[in-house]
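Deliverable D5.2: sample structural annotation.
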Amino acid sequence: QLVESGGGSVQAGGSLRLSCAASGYTGDCMAWFRQTPGKEREGVAVLDSRGKTTYAESVSGRFTVSRDPKTLYLQMNALKPEDTAMYYCAIDMLHTITTMAPFSALATTLYGYWGQGTQVTVS
Protein backbone atom coordinates (compact mmCIF):
# COMPACT_ATOMS: atom_id res chain seq x y z
CA GLN A 1 0.00 0.00 0.00
CA LEU A 2 1.27 3.45 -0.93
CA VAL A 3 -0.02 6.61 0.71
CA GLU A 4 1.02 10.02 -0.58
CA SER A 5 0.92 13.23 1.43
CA GLY A 6 2.34 16.73 1.38
CA GLY A 7 0.45 18.22 -1.52
CA GLY A 8 -1.18 21.62 -1.34
CA SER A 9 -1.37 25.06 -2.85
CA VAL A 10 1.71 27.22 -3.22
CA GLN A 11 2.75 30.32 -5.10
CA ALA A 12 5.11 30.13 -8.03
CA GLY A 13 8.70 29.97 -6.85
CA GLY A 14 7.73 28.20 -3.66
CA SER A 15 8.54 24.71 -2.41
CA LEU A 16 6.72 21.59 -1.29
CA ARG A 17 7.87 18.21 -0.11
CA LEU A 18 5.79 15.18 -0.98
CA SER A 19 5.97 11.93 0.95
CA CYS A 20 4.94 8.42 -0.01
CA ALA A 21 4.65 5.94 2.84
CA ALA A 22 4.96 2.32 1.79
CA SER A 23 3.87 -0.74 3.71
CA GLY A 24 5.63 -3.97 3.01
CA TYR A 25 8.44 -4.41 0.51
CA THR A 26 9.29 -1.21 -1.27
CA GLY A 27 10.54 -2.79 -4.47
CA ASP A 28 13.49 -2.02 -6.69
CA CYS A 29 12.20 1.20 -8.19
CA MET A 30 10.15 3.87 -6.50
CA ALA A 31 8.91 6.73 -8.59
CA TRP A 32 6.83 9.87 -8.72
CA PHE A 33 4.43 10.50 -11.57
CA ARG A 34 2.01 13.32 -12.20
CA GLN A 35 -1.13 13.78 -14.22
CA THR A 36 -3.40 16.62 -15.23
CA PRO A 37 -6.93 16.20 -16.59
CA GLY A 38 -6.97 15.03 -20.17
CA LYS A 39 -3.29 14.20 -20.27
CA GLU A 40 -1.33 11.01 -19.85
CA ARG A 41 0.44 10.28 -16.61
CA GLU A 42 4.06 11.33 -16.89
CA GLY A 43 7.11 10.29 -14.95
CA VAL A 44 8.73 12.93 -12.77
CA ALA A 45 11.48 11.26 -10.77
CA VAL A 46 12.71 7.75 -10.09
CA LEU A 47 15.01 6.30 -7.44
CA ASP A 48 16.06 2.68 -7.51
CA SER A 49 17.47 0.31 -4.91
CA ARG A 50 21.01 0.98 -6.15
CA GLY A 51 20.66 4.70 -5.55
CA LYS A 52 20.39 5.61 -9.20
CA THR A 53 18.02 8.44 -10.08
CA THR A 54 16.44 9.76 -13.20
CA TYR A 55 14.36 12.90 -13.69
CA ALA A 56 12.09 14.33 -16.29
CA GLU A 57 13.81 17.13 -18.13
CA SER A 58 11.09 19.56 -17.06
CA VAL A 59 11.95 19.13 -13.36
CA SER A 60 15.67 18.44 -13.47
CA GLY A 61 17.55 20.80 -11.18
CA ARG A 62 14.38 21.77 -9.30
CA PHE A 63 13.10 18.48 -7.90
CA THR A 64 14.99 15.95 -5.79
CA VAL A 65 13.89 12.40 -5.05
CA SER A 66 15.06 10.61 -1.92
CA ARG A 67 13.97 7.87 0.41
CA ASP A 68 14.35 6.25 3.75
CA PRO A 69 13.51 2.56 4.26
CA LYS A 70 9.75 2.99 4.04
CA THR A 71 9.11 6.43 2.62
CA LEU A 72 9.79 8.06 -0.74
CA TYR A 73 10.14 11.83 -0.86
CA LEU A 74 10.00 14.45 -3.56
CA GLN A 75 11.43 17.84 -2.70
CA MET A 76 10.04 20.34 -5.17
CA ASN A 77 11.66 23.77 -5.37
CA ALA A 78 11.16 26.72 -7.69
CA LEU A 79 7.67 25.49 -8.47
CA LYS A 80 5.96 26.70 -11.62
CA PRO A 81 2.26 26.81 -12.54
CA GLU A 82 2.91 24.02 -15.05
CA ASP A 83 3.87 21.76 -12.14
CA THR A 84 0.21 21.78 -11.08
CA ALA A 85 -1.01 18.17 -11.16
CA MET A 86 -2.03 15.17 -9.16
CA TYR A 87 1.17 13.49 -8.02
CA TYR A 88 1.32 9.73 -7.66
CA CYS A 89 3.82 7.39 -6.08
CA ALA A 90 4.53 4.06 -7.77
CA ILE A 91 6.64 0.95 -7.24
CA ASP A 92 8.18 -1.58 -9.59
CA MET A 93 9.03 -4.71 -7.62
CA LEU A 94 11.33 -6.32 -10.13
CA HIS A 95 13.49 -3.82 -12.00
CA THR A 96 16.13 -1.22 -11.39
CA ILE A 97 16.37 1.81 -13.67
CA THR A 98 18.98 -0.03 -15.73
CA THR A 99 17.13 -3.33 -16.05
CA MET A 100 13.89 -1.63 -17.09
CA ALA A 101 15.37 -1.20 -20.55
CA PRO A 102 14.05 -1.08 -23.20
CA PHE A 103 11.29 0.63 -21.21
CA SER A 104 12.00 4.02 -19.71
CA ALA A 105 11.89 4.27 -15.94
CA LEU A 106 9.77 7.38 -16.48
CA ALA A 107 7.08 5.39 -18.30
CA THR A 108 4.21 3.81 -16.42
CA THR A 109 4.69 0.45 -18.13
CA LEU A 110 6.37 -1.64 -15.45
CA TYR A 111 4.97 -0.05 -12.31
CA GLY A 112 2.45 -2.35 -10.70
CA TYR A 113 1.65 -0.55 -7.49
CA TRP A 114 0.21 2.94 -7.24
CA GLY A 115 -0.93 5.33 -4.56
CA GLN A 116 -4.09 7.41 -4.66
CA GLY A 117 -2.30 10.67 -5.35
CA THR A 118 -1.86 14.07 -3.74
CA GLN A 119 -2.80 17.32 -5.45
CA VAL A 120 -0.24 20.05 -6.04
CA THR A 121 -1.47 23.45 -7.19
CA VAL A 122 0.94 26.24 -8.12
CA SER A 123 -0.45 29.69 -8.83
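Annotation notes: The mean pLDDT is 94. The radius of gyration is 13 Å.
The annotation will be released with the project's public dataset once the embargo ends.
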